[in-house]
Amino acid sequence: MEVVSKRTDRRSFLNYLLGTGIGAAVVSFFYPVIKFLIPPRIAEAPTSSVVAAKVGEVAPNTGKVFRFGSKPGILINGPDGSLRAYSATCTHLDCIVQYRPDMQNIWCACHNGRYDLNGLNIAGPPPRPLEVYDVRTRSGEIVVSKKGG
Amino acid sequence: MLRSLSQRTWNWLDERLNLDELIAHAKEKTVPIHKHTLWYYLGGMTAFLFFVQVVTGILLLLYYRPSSDNAFESVQFIMTEVHFGWLVRSVHSWGANLMIAAAFAHMFSVYFLRAYRKPRELTWVTGILFLFIALTFGFSGYLLPWNELSFFATKVGTEIAGVIPLVGHFLKRFLRGGEDVTGATLTRFFGWHVAMLPAAAAMLLMAHLFMVQRLGMSSPEESTDGADNPSHGKTMLFFPNFLLRDLVGWLIALGILGALAAIYPWELGVKADPFASAPANIKPEWYFVFMFQTLKILPAKILFMDGEVLGILAFGLAGLVGLLVPFLDTQSGPNRTSLIFTVLGVVALVYMVAMTVIAYI
Fold first, then answer.
1. Looking at domain B33-216+233-272, does it have CATH number 1.20.810.10?
2. Is there a contact between B46 and B98 (Cβ–Cβ < 8 Å)?
3. Is there a contact between A111 and B292 if contact means CB atoms under 8 Å apart?
4. Which domain covers residue A78, as residue numbers?
5. Which alpha helices (H) appear in chain B, and where do they start and end?
6. Beta-carbon separation of A98 and B277 below 8 A
7. Which residues of chain B have pLDDT under 50?
8. Burial per residue of B136-168, b for 16 or more beta-carbon CB atoms within 10 angstroms, e otherwise
9. Are B206 and B138 in contact (CB under 8 A)?
């Protein structure tokens, strides 16, 4: 009887070794595959200021989407001729907004979200205001920069 | 001469593989005849349309180039220069829509006829998983022409994954191949669309068909104690009676596909520009429209949560309930239906149709 139980012990010990060994091997096969699927982080120089347009390029009561690093920004020449700039990424689901001269506010075509000329979400599903940028004019160019940047 | 040659070939194979036994088995297969028999054709219709997608998809692969610089131009080339390229691509796009329509119709007919009851729970689960894969096929394939509409549909779709609590940001990066929708997203979607999803779909389809073969057709009167189909009631042979009817259906479907592709060739639109505003009247494919319309209607805040988070979680929960229906519905039996699940099904169907209609009017 004792012999049998010793044998079972030895067998279950071997099974345990085999099982954990196979388990570890499977993990080591799949670890690189899973890591491969996750995209690497690409270091990007943070953009704090760009030339969005030339002075006079954007007529009053119109807007222009420009490149702010890897993200879109929107420059708006208001009905009163004042220049404003915001992030053009809708805070609802990442669409790119546009200026609607007829409504005189910022509109997102995807889910009908609206923002006023201070970037505040005033209608539709957007949960947060748009990020507001600083606008300056420098030797014929309109320069947009992050607040405090 | 030819006949004897084919007979000799058959005999040669039969001697080795014992094919006559398989034939004898197949000859016994029957399909119940009753007032709902028509619905049995929808599964085969979905499978046939999937086959059309595989064939046209392989053809498109010969000319398509998956990069943000080339994708749009290569589809343009297919549509304008390649012989019958417009036909192949339009059949692929229309076929995708018809396949998803057939899959939805198949699902609802199976649901309302309670065919998911024991012993067919896993047939239902593999079917629902196949439907999810089909929707993922639709979503990933939509981006491949790299046009304005598909670019924004992908931005919104992947952002939806991004608002899921806890895992959202990781999931979004995983889907996009980075922080934003770029060429990296396109190659990723391409890889899923032409390799991973077809492999997954083929496995699910095989499991689904194996179970259908193993268990036979469900009949609304059938008992759930694992007994065979009731011997009473009319039946027809699967070979050749049912299969020939299937073939007629497939031929009609192919005719409709060809007509749609010829009369309404699939549009290519405008090339995607990651630094342009979303165009007005933007909409996803019709099978996502009910979710799109819901997100449009939901207010920015519901109690303490963002509206869209709540909406997305609700759709996720509904999908999970759909997947697990056979295990949740313990009431349905032979000639007995569960009121709750009938109501749930009707509500889901009416909601989807109503939201879709609202979006289009």
1. yes
2. no
3. yes
4. 49-145
5. 2-17, 19-28, 41-61, 71-80, 85-112, 121-143, 148-162, 168-176, 183-191, 197-215, 243-263, 286-297, 307-328, 339-360
6. yes
7. 224-228
8. bbbbbbbbbbbbbbbbbbbbbbbbbbbbbeeeb
9. no
* Token pair of B234 as six digits: 């009319």
- Measured between alpha carbons, how far is A121 from B243 in angstroms, rounded to an integer? 58
Nearest-CB residue to B277 (from A38, A71, A97): A97
Cβ B82 vs Cβ B142: under 8 Å: no
B65's tokens? 């180039």
Q: What is the interface pTM, i.e. ipTM, of the complex? A: 0.81
Distance in Å, alpha carbon of A18 to nearest chain B alpha carbon: 30
Are residues B152 and A98, on separate chains, in Cβ contact within 8 Å?
A: no
Beta bridge partners of A132: A86
**A96·B178 Cβ contact <8 A:** no
Instruction: Mark residue A119 as left, alpha or beta (left: phi above 0; alpha: psi -120 to 50; beta: remaining).
Output: left
| C-alpha to C-alpha distance for B155 and B139, rounded to whole angstroms | 11
Query: Same domain, yes or no, for A85 and A129?
Result: yes
What the block records as the tokens of A49 is: 């200021």
Report the largest interatomic distance among the alpha carbons of chain B, rounded to a whole angstrom: 81
Q: What is the pLDDT of residue B233?
A: 74
A54: which 2 tokens? 């030339």
**In chain B, where the domains are located:** 33-216+233-272
CA–CA min distance A90, chain B (Å)? 10
Q: Tell me, yes or no, whether A77 and A30 share the same domain.
A: no
pLDDT-derived band of residue A3, with 50, 70 and 90 as boundaries? Answer: low
Q: Could you report the per-residue pLDDT of B217-230, keeping only the tens digit for each?
A: 888 766 544 444 55
Ordered alpha helix ranges (H), chain A: 2-37
